């Protein structure tokens, strides 16, 4: 059975074989190491001219990649830990995301930045953060976050083939997770699955064939499976039907699948691993409130990490990061309002 890591690694092999313009760059990528989380394993042996190992300077090699992209190369940049992405924020905000407008569409910057993100592995306060919320407000930057309910390799391929800059968020705990994709009839075990289609689809999961819903749970990336597990527990223990909406592109966000679920449930719960203040979840709630307020039968709710650095010890890390039990409790509160 394939998992998320194999899907991403297979996509990189296939893309680099098909297109010599695709170059991978970052720290410690060369075999036999193959990157910190092994997504890049085997690439430097097969494509030595297309894999560039770099010094420890995120701002430097992201800037180099921007220049390469404007010259017709399609660079994929691997950030060893997503926490270090902030070191390249200036290159993204003041340069990469602006060049298309600054030069009147005469240049494109087709750069994809892959960033392993998230906690739950005991890596501590500087290697466990979920920082993509700081990037979703950058005009011109697409932010994509695969989940096991998507095809991660295909999402990466579509992102690399796009003509604009993108941040590709890979939850670290998700790498070893098996893919959970529906069959041709739209079934995944007891789940009914709908896809919004398109290059970056949103998947909606239902235990009642989209007939009945008491609450809509929206989650992406590594939180998607926690949300699905919570939905299963809600049905079995509380007889509450929760639909789970899992976008792959979190910026720009297609709010239509969320609205479609809210027409059945009228109640919204947004889940994310980032700290709770001023995050993606707040933006989802804003969009729904502005564009689809009439669908809400109760105030929206939110589950996220506490506004604290992430601890090294497992009990403290678990207390800071959102858990399945918190989703269940909040969903019950939403559904019974």
Explain what the structure shows.
With 337 residues, the protein is α/β, with parallel strands linked by helices. The protein folds into two domains: 4-174, Thiamin diphosphate (ThDP)-binding fold, Pyr/PP domains (Rossmann fold, 3-Layer(aba) Sandwich); 187-335, Rossmann fold. It is built from eleven helices and 14 strands. The strands form two sheets. Strands 2-1-3-4-6-5-12 form a seven-stranded mixed sheet, with helices on both faces. Strands 7-8-9-11-10-13-14 form a seven-stranded mixed sheet, sandwiched between helices. The radius of gyration is 20 Å and the shape is globular. It starts with a helix and ends with a helix. The mean pLDDT is 97.
Task: Show the helix and strand layout.
Layout: H1 4-18, E1 22-26, H2 43-46, E2 51-53, H3 58-70, E3 74-78, H4 89-96, H5 99-102, E4 112-117, E5 142-144, H6 152-161, E6 166-171, E7 187-188, E8 191-195, E9 203-206, E10 215-218, H7 223-238, E11 242-246, E12 249-251, H8 256-265, E13 268-275, H9 280-291, E14 301-305, H10 314-320, H11 324-335
Parallel strand pairs: 1-2, 1-3, 3-4, 4-6, 5-6, 10-11, 10-13, 13-14
Antiparallel strand pairs: 5-12, 7-8, 8-9, 9-11
Keywords, separated by commas or semicolons:
337 residues, alpha/beta, Rossmann fold, seven-stranded mixed beta sheet, globular
Q: Spans of 5+ residues with little confidence (pLDDT < 50)? A: none
Provide the gyration radius in Å.
20 Å
- Please outline the major beta sheet: 7 strands, mixed
Structural class: alpha/beta
- CATH fold name of the largest domain: Rossmann fold
Mean pLDDT comes to 97
Counted up, domains total: 2
Question: How many β-strands, per DSSP?
Answer: 14
What proportion of the residues form beta strands (DSSP E)? 15-25%
